[in-house]
Design a protein that fits this description.
Chain A: This is General L-amino acid transport system substrate-binding protein. The complex is a heterodimer of chains A (340) and B (396). Chain A has 340 residues and is of the alpha/beta class. Chain A has 2 domains: 2-9 and 23-125 and 227-330, D-Maltodextrin-Binding Protein, domain 2 (3-Layer(aba) Sandwich), CATH 3.40.190; 128-223, Periplasmic binding protein-like II (D-Maltodextrin-Binding Protein, domain 2), CATH 3.40.190. In chain A, 37% of the residues lie in helices and 15% in strands. Chain A contains 13 helices and 14 strands. Chain B is of the alpha+beta class and 396 residues long. Chain B folds into 3 domains: 12-51; 83-152 and 262-391, MetI-like (MetI-like fold, Orthogonal Bundle); 180-245. Chain B contains 11 helices and 8 strands. In chain B, a hairpin with a 5-residue loop joins strand 1 (161-162) and strand 2 (168-170). The longest helix of chain B is centred in the N-terminal third of the chain and has 34 residues, at 83-116. Classes of the chains: A alpha/beta (340), B alpha+beta (396). Chains A and B meet through helix 1, helix 4, helix 6 and strand 10 of A and helix 1, helix 10 and helix 11 of B.
C-alpha cells in the first residue's frame, strides 16, 4: 500500500516536473548526468534476473540492461538494479523511478498504448505453462477441473488463466499473490494444485523447490508471451537506444561476433561487420552514443546466443533449448533489422 | 506611507489595522495559496499524463476486467466482470474481515484486559505475556506466521480432517455445509428475527419495570425461548424445510458446501489477536482510571465482585476506553490492507493491485482507494462518537 502510494506520488511529482520536450533524449542526458543506469528488474528469477551472494545480478533481462549501460558508458557495471514486483513495475517506470524496465514483461496492446509505455523488442519468446505435482497423475491442463491454481497478480498470466479456463468451461479457484516468492511458497505448501507462470519461469522456479523431481511441467502452452524491455512514451531516442542495444546483440550472433572475437572483428573487411563495430559510418551519433556502441555491447556482454546459453541454456542449470528463441536463420523467431 | 495624525480617526482604527479583518485576510490568503497549489498540481498531473499518453479519467470503471477472484460476496466472474465490479468485490471483502475482526478483537481484548488485572498470578502473567508479545512483533510477520501456521499442518483435500456436523478441514480451507431453504424455510429466519427483536423489547421493558418496582424478570430464560425455541418450533411445524449440501471430494477439491478460505482465516486471526493486544491495554487503562473508592463504595453497599465490575466499574471505565478503542478499530480496518501479502483479495489486493496494474491508472485508482479508507474510517468514528456521547458523563 505504502509503496504504491509512494510510487503514485512520485508519478504525480515527476509528471509535474517533466515539462517541455527536449530535442535530444532527456532520459539519456539524465542517465549520463547521473553516471548510472536505473534498471527495473524482477525480484529474483533464475536465468532472467537474480543477484548472487555478492549482489551481482545476472540473467537474460539483466544482460539487456548491461548492454544499454555498455553502449552508453562502455562499462556494463554502471547499472543499478531496482527489484520490482509484477504489480508495481509499470508505476515505477511511468514515474521515472527507473529508466528502463527489463523483467520478463509481456508485450500487449494495452500496455503499449494505455499505460503510456513502449516495448523495445522481444528478448525472449515465451508462453504460459503449468506446474503440478507428479503424484496428481495428470498429463493435461484440461484435467485440472476444480483445481486451486496459484498465480502472481498483475500479470498477463492471471488474465490468460481466466481466459483459458473460461473458454474450456473448466471451473477452478484462483489464489493470487503479490510476489513471486509468496506464490511459489503457497504452491509448495499445498495451498494450490498447480502453479502457473511463463514456461521459462516454471523451469526456473522448479529448481528452487525442495524436491524438484516431485514436480512436473504440463505440456500445454496456453498463451503467447513475448517478453521484452520497456521504456516510457515520449522519448523516442531513448526507445531507439534500448531497441538497438537488443538488436545489436541479435545481429552480433548472426554476424558471428562474440565476446571473445570482438577485438579481432575491429580489423574485419566485411562491410556489415565494419558498420557494426563502428569502423565504418557514424551509426551511434543520431542516438547520442559513441560510434563503437555495438562493439562495446558485444565486448562486455556478448551476443544474444552467448547470453542465452550462459543464463538459461546449456551453460546454466535451466538447460532450456533455443526453440523459438533461435535466430530466424536457424528456424527461430529472433530477427533483428540490419545496421546500415 | 507616513500617516499624519489627521488621518487617524479618534476611537476607530483603520480597516487595515482591525485585527479581525487582518485575520480574515490572512486566512483568505492562505486558503488561496493552498487552493492554487492543489489546482496547479492537479492540472500539471493531468497535462503531463496526457503528454505521456497515459490513459486518464474514470472510464475504465465499466471496462471488462478479465481476471478472477476466489472469495467474492457478490456474483463476479472474469467473463462478465468489470473493474467497477471487482472494486466492490474487494471492498466487501475488506469490510467483511474488518467487521468480524472488530467484533472478535473487542471480545478478546476485553477478556485479556480484565485478565491482566486479575488477582490470579498465572492468569495475569499469561495476559501480560500475550500483550507484550503481540504488541511488539510487526503485524506483517504475524500474518505470515498465521498463514503458514494455518496452511502447513493441514492435509490436502483427499485427506481432509472430518469434523462433526459435516464440517471438513484441509489446506484449501474450512468447508461448512451449505443450508438450502425449501418452501417455508424463510419462515424460520423470520421467526428468528422476530424472536431477536422481541427479546430486546422485553429486556428494555423488564429493566424499566425493575427500575420502577424492583421486581426482577427472568430475561435469560425468555431470550432462550424467543431466540432458540421459537425458530426450532417453526422448523418442525413447517415440516423441516432446511436441508444441507455437504462438501464432498470431487476431483482435486471439495465440491458443495461453503468454503472459508485459509487466507481469510489467517488474516482474521492475525488482525484479531494483534488488535486485541492493544485493546487489552486500553481496557486495563480504563479500569485503572476508575478510582478504587468506587469499588470500595460498591462493596460497602453489599455488591458482589461481578455486579461491581459490571454495574460500577465498567460503565465508568467506558468513558476512558471508547476514544482509544475507536482508533484501534480504525487501525484494524486500515491494517486489513496487509492482506495483499498473503493473497486475501481485499480492496488493496484486487483494486490497487490487479486493477491498477491492468489499467495503469495509478492516480485514479489510488485516489479512489484512499477515499474509500477515509470514508470507512470517518463512518466508524461517527458511530463511535455517537456511542461515546451516550456513555459520556451527563453533566447536570
Amino acid at each position: 500500500m505504502k509503496q504504491i502510494i509512494g510510487a503514485a506520488l512520485i508519478a504525480v511529482s515527476a509528471a509535474m516536473c517533466a515539462s517541455g520536450a527536449l530535442a535530444q533524449s532527456p532520459t539519456l542526458a539524465q542517465v549520463k548526468n547521473r553516471g548510472i543506469l536505473h534498471c527495473g528488474s524482477g525480484t529474483g528469477l533464475a536465468g532472467f534476473g537474480i543477484p548472487d551472494q555478492q549482489g551481482n545480478w545476472s540473467g537474460m533481462d539483466v544482460d539487456v540492461c548491461r548492454a544499454v549501460a555498455s553502449a552508453i558508458f562502455n562499462d556494463p557495471t554502471k547499472v543499478k538494479f531496482i527489484p520490482l514486483s509484477a504489480k508495481d513495475r509499470f508505476t515505477s517506470l511511468q514515474s521515472g523511478e527507473v529508466d528502463l524496465l527489463s523483467r520478463t514483461t509481456t508485450w500487449t496492446l494495452s500496455r503499449d498504448t494505455a499505460l503510456g509505455l513502449n516495448f523495445a523488442g522481444v528478448n525472449y519468446y515465451d508462453g504460459q505453462g503449468f506446474m503440478v505435482r507428479k503424484k496428481l497423475g495428470i498429463d493435461s491442463v484440461l484435467k485440472l477441473a476444480g483445481a486451486s491454481i496459484c498465480t502472481q497478480q498483475g500479470t498477463t498470466t492471471e488474465l490468460n488463466l481466466a481466459d483459458y479456463f473460461r473458454s474450456n468451461k473448466i471451473k477452478y479457484e484462483v489464489v493470487a499473490f503479490a510476489s513471486n516468492q509468496e506464490t511459489v511458497k503457497a504452491y509448495e505448501s499445498g495451498r494450490c494444485d498447480a502453479f502457473t507462470t511463463d514456461a521459462s519461469g516454471l523451469y526456473a522456479e522448479r529448481l528452487t523447490l525442495s524436491t524438484p523431481e516431485d514436480h512436473m511441467v504440463l505440456p500445454e502452452i496456453i498463451s503467447k508471451e513475448p517478453l521484452g524491455p520497456v521504456v516510457r512514451h515520449g522519448d523516442d531516442v531513448w526507445l531507439d537506444i534500448v531497441k538497438w542495444s537488443l538488436f545489436a546483440m541479435i545481429n552480433a550472433e548472426e554476424l558471428g561476433i562474440t565476446k571473445a572475437n570482438a577485438d579481432e572483428m575491429l580489423k574485419s573487411d566485411n562491410p556489415e561487420i565494419k558498420r557494426f563495430v563502428g569502423t565504418e559510418g557514424k551509426f551511434g551519433e543520431p542516438m547520442g552514443l559513441a560510434n563503437d556502441w555495438a562493439y562495446r555491447i558485444v565486448k562486455h556482454v556478448g551476443n544474444y546466443g552467448e547470453s542465452f546459453e550462459r543464463n538459461v541454456g546449456s551453460g546454466s542449470l535451466l538447460k532450456i533449448a533455443r526453440g523459438q528463441n533461435a535466430l530466424w536463420s536457424k528456424g527461430g523467431l529472433q530477427y533483428a533489422p540490419p545496421i546500415r | 506611507m507616513s500617516i499624519t495624525s489627521a488621518e487617524i480617526k479618534p476611537g476607530k482604527a483603520s480597516l487595515l489595522y482591525d485585527p479581525k479583518i487582518r485575520g480574515y485576510a490572512y486566512q483568505f490568503l492562505l486558503l488561496a495559496v493552498v487552493g492554487f497549489l492543489i489546482w496547479s498540481a492537479a492540472s500539471n498531473a493531468i497535462e503531463n499524463l496526457r503528454a505521456q499518453k497515459i490513459a486518464s479519467g474514470f472510464g475504465f470503471w465499466h471496462n471488462a476486467s478479465g481476471f478472477d477472484v476466489n472469495q467474492k460476496l457478490i456474483p463476479y466472474d472474469a467473463s462478465t466482470g468489470t473493474y467497477g465490479r471487482a472494486f466492490w468485490v474487494g471492498l466487501l471483502n475488506t469490510l467483511l474481515v474488518a467487521s468480524i475482526g472488530i467484533v472478535l478483537s473487542t471480545f478478546l481484548g476485553f477478556f485479556v484486559g480484565v485478565a491482566r488485572l486479575s488477582s490470579n498470578w498465572i492468569v495475569s502473567k499469561i495476559a501480560m505475556i500475550y500483550v507484550e508479545v503481540i504488541r511488539n512483533v510487526p503485524l506483517l510477520l504475524q500474518l505470515f506466521f498465521w498463514y503458514n501456521a494455518v496452511l502447513k499442518p493441514l492435509p490436502n483435500p483427499r485427506q481432509s480432517i472430518v469434523l462433526p456436523a459435516g464440517f471438513l478441514l484441509n489446506n484449501r480451507g474450512l468447508y461448512v455445509p451449505d443450508p438450502q431453504f425449501g418452501p417455508g424455510g424463510n419462515l424460520i429466519i423470520w421467526a428468528f428475527l422476530i424472536g431477536l427483536v422481541a427479546t430486546f423489547v422485553f429486556r428494555s421493558w423488564a429493566r424499566k419495570q425493575q427500575a420502577a418496582t424492583g421486581k426482577q424478570y427472568p430475561i435469560g430464560l425468555v431470550a432462550l425461548g424467543l431466540i432458540v425455541v421459537l425458530p426450532t418450533l417453526v422448523y418442525f411445524v413447517t415440516g423441516r424445510p432446511i436441508s444441507f449440501v455437504y462438501p464432498e471430494l470431487a476431483g482435486f477439491n471439495l465440491r458443495g458446501g461453503i468454503q472459508i478460505f485459509p487466507e481469510f482465516v489467517a488474516l482474521l486471526v492475525g488482525l484479531t489477536t494483534y488488535t486485541a493486544g492493544f485493546i487489552a491495554e486500553v481496557v486495563r487503562a480504563g479500569i485503572l482510571a476508575v478510582s478504587k473508592g468506587q469499588t470500595e463504595a460498591a462493596n460497602a453497599l453489599g455488591l458482589r465482585a461481578g455486579p461491581t465490575l459490571k454495574l460500577v466499574v465498567i460503565p465508568q471505565a467506558m468513558r476512558v476506553i471508547i476514544p482509544p478503542l475507536t482508533s484501534n478499530y480504525l487501525n484494524l480496518t486500515k491494517n486489513s490492507s496487509l492482506a495483499v501479502a498473503i493473497g486475501y483479495p481485499d480492496l488493496v489486493q484486487v483494486f490497487t493491485g490487479t486493477v491498477l496494474n491492468q489499467t495503469g491508472q495509478a492516480v485514479e485508482v489510488v485516489a479512489i482507494t484512499m477515499a474509500v479508507y477515509l470514508t470507512i474510517s470517518l463512518v466508524t468514528s461517527l458511530f463511535m462518537n455517537i456511542y461515546n456521547k451516550r456513555m459520556a458523563l451527563v453533566e447536570r
